[in-house]
Amino acid sequence: MSDSSESRNIKQELDQRHVELKSLFETSKILNSSLQLNTILNNLLLTPMGRMMISRGLVLVADHENRFSLRNVKGLSKKLIGTTHKVDFNFDKPVLLNSVDQNECKLKDFFLELGIELLLPINTSTRMIGMIGLGKKITKNDFTEAELEFLNSLSNIASTAIDNAIIFQKLENVNRKLDNKIQQLNTLFDISKELNSTLDKKKIINLLIYAIMGEMAAQRCYIFLKTNNQLKFTDFRGGKGNTYEIQTFSDNEFLAHLADVSSPFLVENTVLPEPLQPLRTQKIKVTVPMRIQEQTNGIILLGERINNLEYTDNDIEFLSTLCNQAMISLENARLFDETIEKQRMEDELNIAREIQNRLLPETFPALECYEIMGFNVPSREVGGDYYDCICLDENRIALAIGDVSGKGAPASLLMSNLHAGLHTLVMSKADITMIMSKLNNLIYAHTTFDKFITFFYAEINILERTITYSNAGHNPPLIYRQDGSYISLDKGGLILGMMPDNIYETETLQLLPGDFLLMFTDGVTEAMNNLDEEFDDWRLLNIMQFAKTNNLSINELINKVITEVRDFSQGLPQADDITMLGLKVLM
Exposed, middle or buried: residue 168 (CB in 10 Å: 0-12, 13-18, 19+)? Predict the structure, then answer.
């Protein structure tokens, strides 16, 4: 083959690849533009069928375990939609059914009868969530390797969109249930104003008991409520309240069987299991469950009536409605208590967050030859990351960054201790080795074995343009130089708080004009994307190279890192605190 002919073939192949990649990109945009599963599946079938002139196709989506539901068809009977099938095999690449044994794929005959000859898996990182079935081409040509590769890429692209749509569908169902719940509560508020006039549990119970006894003219009323998923004897009116009665109604076997009651009944007309016989011996006339969301969360027992009349079906219906309404009121009271407690905790966390923000520097020194900037975003209301910039004297500044193990309030408290200890030691004019050693002993003495801090501390000599530092197990900060080389600042010792009396090394380096110094916590480099990949140091170095090339300020560099990290982990919640402290040596 001549060179020109080979060049043309290569160009044709590259052009074809370009077209395929462009098609996959456009398809990805279409699939991810919707969260409606049916729309995604419809586009997913139309793309390959239109491109390759395929006569028929179908898509199955996993329902639960190994059951798959047929959700969309083209060129086949619509009656197939909604049918479920057991799939007892997994695969990770396109499968031609004619090359598969029946024992490997028990659905082989089913697919072949429908004219399906190619199966494509739709896999997430953890499981197979569906499959695409395609029939023959109208041209009757076989699928080429390039087409199979294209189809495999298409199914991989579709997996994220389908998985997101499934999650969205579940969220819609949850929201729908919550909407129904709100509607029920609104209706019940209208029906039972007196019960819902208070959110005090004891008042609700009292109102319920007196309302029942007043309406039914009952001599005795006993109430049982579930606490920590166990039914317990809660309160009574009109009973004897003696030891025997209390012991009878507090018996574990009796309570366990009583908790299984799902509908009201008259004791005299019901065959009782042995554990519930005390209902007869205590002359209980009627048993009414207190139901919510089809679960029994309480029981009302009523004794004989003052007028000696029997309880009627209308009485039972009234009691059932009233008790269910009361159960909702009690549930509202519980939720209200939880909300108050949550609000109290949120208020305390907000105060803690405000205090923590005050521990971080609000401004940075304006220096002639240096730019300094810091940034912190906790993953929760308060976090365990820390950075600082301290003016030691007119010629020296100190920079520090740390990461406390764990998250939330405990990490925040430990961070506060670190801040206080560092500032105390800096004021004492101790050298770096002494500062690191005393901080380590301070953390070790005031924490448990599972609490520790990674920490980096450096002192910058402004006139001599030197940095002297020590690293206690922290992510090594990076110095990126104008010639494209970089230095990893890793000299030091063990993490703070691991063991007492550690000795920490120091290192002094010359800072050069144009140098970028970037300190960061693992919330930056260990940020994850939806493919379980970490952001990692190499991406950070690429950004620093970009900053050098484009002569960015330290503020612009940090903002660039923040943007890249957020774009990288788009769609995933922030798993860890993100903190950076940077310095640029000006020309």
Answer: middle
Residues 6+ apart with CB under 8 A from 18: none
Where helices occur in 250-369 by DSSP H, the ranges are: 252-258, 278-281, 313-359
> And the tokens for 71?
């959700």
Determine the Cα–Cα distance for residues 136 and 490; give it in Å rounded to an integer. 61
Q: Which among 276, 47, 257 has a CA at the least distance from the CA of 150?
A: 47
Instruction: Give 192-230 pLDDT, tens digit per residue.
Output: 566 666 778 888 888 888 878 877 888 999 999 988 889
Dist. CA 469–CA 418, nearest whole Å = 17
Q: What is residue 154's three-state secondary structure?
A: helix
Distance CA 548, CA 551 (A): 5
User: What are the E-state strand segments in 312-377?
Assistant: 370-377
492-493 vs 466-472, strand pairing mode: parallel
| Banded model confidence at residue 13, pLDDT cuts 50, 70, 90 | low
* Helix (H/G/I), strand (E/B), else coil: 527: coil
The strand order across the sheet containing 95-96 reads 84-86, 67-74, 57-64, 128-135, 116-123, 95-96
- Beta strand segments in 238-285, E: 265-266
* Contact call for residues 105 and 68 (beta carbons, < 8 A): no
Per-residue tokens: 456: 């980096």
Residue 181: pLDDT band (50, 70, 90) is very low
Whether the Cβ atoms of residue 531 and residue 579 lie closer than 8 Å to each other: no
According to DSSP, residue 75 is labeled S
Q: Which domains does the chain show, CATH number per domain?
A: 3-170 (3.30.450.40), 195-335 (3.30.450.40), 360-585 (3.60.40.10)
Reduced to 3 states, what is the DSSP secondary structure of residue 127? coil
CA–CA separation, 252 and 236 (whole Å): 18
- What is the Cα–Cα distance from 103 to 107, expressed in whole angstroms? 9
Average pLDDT on 170-176 reads 80
Quick one: 368 exposed, middle or buried, by C-beta within 10 A (0-12, 13-18, 19+)? exposed
